[in-house]
Design a protein that fits this description.
heterotrimer, A alpha+beta (464), B alpha+beta (168), C alpha+beta (296), A: 464 residues, alpha+beta, Aldehyde Oxidoreductase, domain 3, Aldehyde Oxidoreductase, domain 4, 3 domains, seven-stranded mixed β-sheet, five-stranded mixed β-sheet, 17 strands, B: 168 residues, Ubiquitin-like (UB roll), DNA polymerase, domain 1, 6 helices
Chain lengths: 464, 168, 296
């Protein structure tokens, strides 16, 4: 509490200063050095009431002054700039990559292709993603070569001089098409379904037979890009002892370090990965992207190398949220109580697995909603298509299934002429309810939350 | 190369730039003023907002040569750590910034707005910030902060919080 | 951006001469908000960039016997703030307000918006509804034409190599003509129009509609006039039924496309509704004007 009052005093002092008419505009050269931010440290053995307290974020002042150092604000003497050439075709065999013209350009210090990557595959659960595509292109955002140059301008111009010869191959873009036997295989010889989860409880057939009404609907959601305002960015540099340091906007640095160890085929203790300030993540910066490329370009040139994705690359070459195709079949009794629910989820996984398995699992577990249902059958699968890969994004599949089961809840309520709140109250989990995967639930406040929300929004709305 | 002279945050600069240098590139790479950020590079996100001769612009959509003879204000010229601008003060107290990447642009958009309209409505503030994207979606807290900063700048209150009096 | 040469000039004649010399290997920089975005995604160099944003005579807004002259380098913000424009054609200021966001309006120019000629431009509809004319200059002199004749299709105008758009003129007879602009985008700020509509009209002594103009954006290869709807409306009394009918006719005669922003069918529906509303607003302005002038 005492620390809070100190902050308040400072804040008010500063406002008082600024209202006395002192000039706010100062010459940039006169700016004082910025010191580490104040930290609020509670007294020992003193319980601080956390909830309801106003806390000033420790990074707030740096942010407001524009002094927070994100990767692209960092410059290391001698630093080079990297750009990655993107395939631009969704499915193709690479017949040849000619980098000679780019390499001959003044200012271009190094060019690499997938053949320069010691272990050219990575991924959090399946290692199905190449760092740079070598023999085959799996989606249009695949990198096929990378350049390090003395300026971003030259690096970008060098990309245009790299010639790649492709033999176009059949591609599949619709996950339902990809399920068919004769669909082009994204990663042959493997089939296009790369992850599947099934949850069974009770007997849905029995449940539907006992039901008064059965509802069947299909729901779809679209692909979503995280669009952090700060694009993916990293800097790699090597020390004299052959250790690499990578500064990165990556969220999961420990996983990233392991992926770097794998792709660079190096002991993990020779890799230092520094997580920096992140200008927005939302799940989109949860695994490595260009880091191995930058490390290899830095090793090849002996210079620090920075890479910052363009906005286009953010959309085509970073992960996105899975589009879902969701089939819901739900049986209810005459009071709208759900007796059985059968769910089929098809996740459009794009070209690589990324965090699909995690997303698939969460979506499957949550797909029947926060409702007591005796008979449940869920089948969920993630499917390859020749599109930008899908991965983690806020909620890992939970928002998609929520859209489906709540939409269907409204359809049921409307058909049976039951109030939308009432139908949820009749079905909602309570203390001791068992989830579809057999978990006994405690501290369940679904109904209380619903009632609270209803009160606040004056539900049911009464016509005046 | 093109010779230009411009004032940045009160300091005069005589510079030589290549024609394709954007104002953002000049500020960030030649002057080391990295407060303005490269977000989308096409004028959609507003992370590169700076104020030129009193008008807010996207520094990514302006060639450095176009700023010849102009006076540029970036976030670095707005305040010092010990003496914040009321907008920065209010942003801090209202926790308006999360990841912070959009912050410098949004604060400068707010400044340009309040300089031209000291008593904006909530809708005016929304419009004034509509050229700036925040993906952490802290818009509500930013709008509160700008309205409160406007009160402070009009001299109506010194309470940048806007709550402590009501709470006491 | 690929390397290019850059020249800024403050002299219109020099700008025209430079353009004449370099022809298709030169591009004009007005506000730069479209041009720079273009150059960044282009893989070829534009050659020479001629910056005309500082030519004073292209930044003039003035009322002459000929009409209201608006220089091509007037920015959207300046249009919003101009007392002359707000007095004589407030709908143009309303339209400017919907373009981009503050930052882009501070840089972007009226001339740039017209020359870029994207079908969803927000400057075009109101100007068409006020029978605006454009003045083009080249080494050989100037020519003037109605704005309707200026557009040829998406990003295509009648400008010849070496020719420059220098000003827009709203004819004196149309200053004060009751008009209204409406736009629908996917969000309020910073969004391209799904449809924009401008309508203008006079009411004659009997209170019937005279010289109606209806202009539509984003529903054809360029901004267009809804001529059939105009013909239907001329001479009718300003009843809500006839305005709704004009909206339906306009929806039929436009040629919208399906794209990721909206379907053609949705755009047609928008046209019908926005035309009806814009006409109603223009009528309201007309009645107010009559009232103020003490007409019967």
């Amino acid at each position: 509490m005492n620390s809070k009052s100190i902050v308040d005093e400072k804040l008010h002092a500063a406002v008082a200063d600024s209202t006395t008419g002192l000039p706010l505009l100062v010459r940039s050269e006169m700016l004082p050095a910025v010191f580490p931010v104040d930290l609020l440290v509670p007294d020992a053995r003193q319980q601080t009431p956390a909830v309801g307290q106003r806390v000033i974020r420790t990074d707030a002042r740096q942010h407001g002054l524009g002094q927070t150092p994100y990767i692209d604000d960092m410059v290391i003497p001698g630093m080079l700039y990297a750009r990655i050439k993107r395939a631009g075709v969704a499915s193709a065999r690479i017949l040849g990559i000619d980098t000679r013209e780019a390499e001959a350009m003044p200012g271009v210090m190094a060019v690499i292709t997938g053949r320069d990557i010691p272990v050219n595959s990575f991924g959090p659960s399946l290692q199905d993603q190449p760092v740079l595509a070598t023999e085959r292109v799996f989606h249009a955002g695949d990198g096929v070569a990378a350049v390090a140059a003395v300026s971003e301008q030259i690096a970008a111009e060098a990309l245009a001089k790299i010639r790649v010869e492709y033999e176009r191959l059949p591609a599949v873009f619709d996950p339902l098409e990809a399920l068919k036997d004769d669909a082009p295989k994204v990663h042959p010889p493997a089939g296009n379904i790369y992850a599947r989860k099934v949850i069974c409880r009770g007997s849905v057939e029995q449940g539907f037979a006992d039901s008064k009404h059965v509802f069947e609907q299909q729901y779809r959601t679209q692909m979503v890009e995280h669009v952090p305002i700060e694009p993916h960015a990293a800097i790699a540099l090597w020390d004299a002892n052959g250790r690499v340091t990578v500064y990165s906007s990556l969220g999961r640095i420990t996983l990233g370090r392991a992926d770097l160890a794998r792709t660079l085929r190096m002991p993990i203790n020779r890799i230092r990965l520094v997580g920096t300030f992140v200008g927005g993540n939302f799940g989109g910066k949860n695994e490595i992207t260009q880091e191995p490329v930058l490390a290899l370009l830095a090793r090849k040139t002996g210079r620090p190398v920075k890479g910052v994705y363009t906005r286009t690359e953010e959309f085509t070459a970073s992960t996105t949220r899975h589009p879902f195709i969701m089939d819901y079949k739900t049986g209810v009794d005459s009071n709208g109580r759900i007796l059985a629910r059968k769910v089929r989820l098809v996740l459009d996984g794009g070209a690589y697995c990324s965090w699909s398995e995690t997303t698939l699992g969460k979506a499957a577990i949550l797909s029947t909603g926060p409702y007591k249902i005796e008979h449940v059958h869920v089948e969920a699968m993630a499917v390859y298509t020749n599109k930008t890969m899908t991965g983690a994004m806020r909620g890992f599949g939970a928002p998609q299934v929520c859209f489906a089961y709540e939409s269907q809840m409204d359809e049921i309520a409307s058909t049976l002429d039951i109030d939308p709140l009432e139908i949820r109250m009749r079905n909602a989990f309570v203390n001791g309810s068992i989830s579809p995967t057999g978990q006994v639930l405690h501290s369940v406040v679904v109904r209380e939350s619903l009632l609270n929300a209803a009160r606040r929004m004056n539900w049911p709305e009464v016509d005046s | 190369m093109i010779d230009i002279s411009l004032t940045v945050n009160g300091g005069r600069h005589e510079l030589s730039v290549s024609p394709e240098t954007t104002l953002l590139g000049l500020l960030r790479n030649q002057l080391g003023l990295t407060g303005a950020k490269l977000g989308c590079d096409v004028g959609d996100c507003g992370a590169c907002t700076v104020i030129i001769d009193g008008r807010s612009v996207n520094a990514c959509l302006m060639l450095a040569a176009q700023a010849d003879g102009c006076s540029v204000l970036t976030i670095e010229g707005l305040a010092t750590r010990e003496q914040l601008h009321p907008i920065q003060q209010a942003f801090e107290v209202h926790a308006s910034l999360q990841c912070g990447f959009c912050g410098p642009g949004i604060i400068l958009s707010a400044k340009a707005l309040l300089d031209g309209n000291p008593d904006p409505s909530r809708q005016d503030v929304r419009e004034g910030l509509s050229g700036n994207l925040c993906r952490c979606t802290g818009y509500a807290k930013m709008i509160e902060a700008v309205l409160q900063a406007a009160c402070v700048m009009r001299g109506e209150t010194e309470d940048v919080d806007g709550k402590s009096k009501a709470g006491s | 951006m690929r390397a290019f040469d850059y020249l800024a000039t403050v002299d219109l004649r020099q700008a025209v001469r430079l353009l004449d010399e370099h022809g298709t290997s030169a591009r004009i920089l007005a506000g730069g908000t479209d041009l720079l975005a273009d150059l960044k995604s282009s893989s070829s160099s534009p050659g020479l960039i001629i910056d005309i944003s500082r030519i004073k005579e292209l930044k003039v807004i003035e009322s002459t016997a000929h009409g209201l002259r608006i220089g091509a380098m007037v920015t959207h913000s300046e249009i919003m703030q101009s007392a002359l424009i707000r007095e004589h054609c407030p709908a143009l200021a309303d339209a400017a307000r919907t373009i981009g966001a503050v930052q882009t309006r501070n840089l972007g120019t009226l001339g740039g918006n017209l020359v870029t000629a994207v079908p969803s431009m927000d400057s075009g509809a109101t100007l068409l509804a006020l029978d605006a004319r454009v003045v083009l200059a080249c080494g050989g002199g100037t020519r003037e034409m109605p704005l309707t004749d200026f557009f040829m299709g998406p990003r295509k105008t009648v400008l010849r190599p070496g020719e420059l758009l220098v000003e827009v003129v709203i004819p004196a007879c149309n200053l004060g003509k009751p008009a209204h602009f409406l736009k629908t985008g996917l969000r309020k700020g910073q969004a391209l129009a799904l449809v924009n509509v401008a309508a203008s009209l006079w009411l004659d002594a009997a209170g019937n509609i005279e010289e109606p103009r209806i202009a539509l954006g984003a529903v054809a290869p360029s901004v267009i006039r809804a001529m059939a709807a105009e013909r239907y409306l001329a001479g009718r009394s300003p009843q809500s039924g006839s305005m709704a009918e004009a909206g339906k006719i306009a929806a039929e005669e436009c040629r919208p496309i399906n794209d990721f922003r909206a379907t053609a069918a949705y755009r047609r529906d928008l046209v019908a509704v926005l035309v009806k509303r814009a006409l109603a607003q223009a009528c309201e302005r007309a009645l107010k004007r009559q009232h103020e002038r003490g007409a019967p």
